[in-house]
Write a structure and sequence with these properties.
The chain is of the alpha/beta class. It has a single domain, classed as Maf protein (Alpha-Beta Complex), CATH 3.90.950.20. A 5-stranded mixed β-sheet has the order 2-1-3-4-5. β4 and β5 form a beta hairpin. One of its GO terms (molecular function) is hydrolase activity. InterPro entries: CinA-like_C (IPR036653), CinA_C (IPR008136). It holds the Pfam family CinA. This is Nicotinamide-nucleotide amidohydrolase family protein.
Length: about 170
């Protein structure tokens, strides 16, 4: 056992125990979050899958993000993250059943700014039921570090969402 418990294994365990499924929509993380989740044995019980929508147009065509929102604000915006999280749940439905939770990552990993946003500007989108939330992050480091930190923060955000929505 390590001094730092495996938070992803704990998340997969919590999702499985609660009978919840999750779908992942990624941009700047390029599949790292889905790979992190499915690294855990038994993840097939709770992970429906993931969509990497790296190009802005794919956020609309694959995930249903509003084209006017993308045109006005670009792909690095809190509402884009929310719409990605909402959209991936239905796009990755199993037998007509949407995933219970959606998580999305969008941001600028660097090294250069994008759309007026500086490297390290990241938004996580979360969705459960008809609700969606965005978590703004300002991360530091090189491209790799920003992407890795985004994955870690996404895992923690889903932990928090599950804990917050547990019945008392």
């Amino acid at each position: 056992m390590t001094a730092f418990p495996d938070r992803t294994a704990a998340l997969v365990g919590a999702l499985t125990a609660a009978g919840l499924t999750i779908a992942v929509a990624e941009s700047l993380t390029g599949g790292l979050l889905a790979a992190e989740l499915i690294r855990i044995p038994g993840a097939s019980f709770c992970v429906n899958g993931g969509v990497v929508a790296y190009q802005t147009e794919l956020k609309h065509t694959l995930l249903g993000v509003d084209t006017e929102l993308l045109a006005e604000h670009g792909p690095v915006h809190p509402e884009v993250a929310i719409q990605m999280a909402l959209g991936v749940r239905t796009r990755l439905a199993i037998a007509g059943r949407a995933a219970d939770l959606g998580i999305a990552t969008t941001g600028v990993a660097g090294p250069d700014p994008q759309g007026g946003q500086v490297p390290g500007t990241v938004f996580l989108g979360l969705s459960r039921g008809g609700d969606g939330w965005a978590i703004p992050l300002i991360l530091a480091g090189d491209r790799s570090a920003i992407r890795e930190q985004t994955v870690a923060r996404a895992v923690e955000a889903v932990h928090t969402l599950i804990a917050r929505s547990r019945p008392e």
